[in-house]
Amino acid sequence: MKVENILCCDWGTSSFRLRLLNLKGEVVAETKSDQGVLATHGLWEKLEEAEATKRFNFYLAYIRNQMASLHCNDAIDVLSLPIVISGMASSSIGMKNLPYTNLPFNLNGSVGYEVIVQENKIPILLVTGVASDEDIMRGEETQIMGLFHLSTLQEILPSKGLYILPGTHSKHIEIENGLMVNFKTFITGELFQLLQAEGTIAKSIIASKGDTIHDLKYATAFEKGVMQSKNGLLQNELFKIRANDILNKVSKEQNYYYLSGLLIGNELAYLAAGDQLKNKIVIGASDQLASYYNQALITLGLEADSIIIESAQFEKATAMGQLAVYKNYAQIK
Q1: I want to staple 225 with a disulfide (CB 3.0 to 4.6 A). Which of 97, 166, 212, 258 is the partner?
Q2: Residue 225, number of CB atoms within 10 A of its CB
Q3: What pTM does this model have?
């Protein structure tokens, strides 16, 4: 079946995004919602059904309902288009729990998905995620695939490097000649969210309005946090946030940036230790997160070995990875 467009669904734990994409990688239409896989799984559990097929169709029904929100040419019949789904949809709380694809993982789109053919003969390509002997990921593998299929990045991305994707669970992914060969996960974002929301430290930090990392007093607090992260006393440094507030040494807003620097620095510090850094570092994230990680790399003396992907380019990564999967499946060059 020859098609000119496909549907790309990025379904995370707490978010949903559906794009209509042409085969050039251009977004024709898109829709998004806050109904992630976790919320959908909660709705499914209320039905008290156990049959796997019914569960798959329950999730698929939501995707089909969201297709109605795609504002596109009436000549495009979205219900007849192939669908590529990545993220948490293939997890234990997703539409179908698929086993992970083991390392090494080829980034050409030839592995790491299961094909489910619908009653109307239209294929659904469900991306599996990747596992090493001691770590797992779902979603980031599609982003990494996409980066290597963006023509605008092909001249600047190293074939051998450490690709860092910051987020709730930050991934440090080792790439060698088109293969993902290893990765580590750091729960930096999750720790920050927990410390900001609960416990005594939460009473001593306040987020400043807007992104003010470039304000001198906040930048100084952030850089101090990065440097202190190297002393091996993370838990002690965390309590100092509370103590510095009680003793009126710094503002709650400065503490916010100190905490951010402390956690991001703790994540990256191993790269500055001894001969740990062997390859170029590539950062892919939103503008705000990328600026934080870039500043941390500068503070650690690693900026000469790093590349920051523009957020507008990184935004295209997931869809381009999904398109690579479809093209490989359909044998489109």
Answers
A1: 258
A2: 26
A3: 0.94
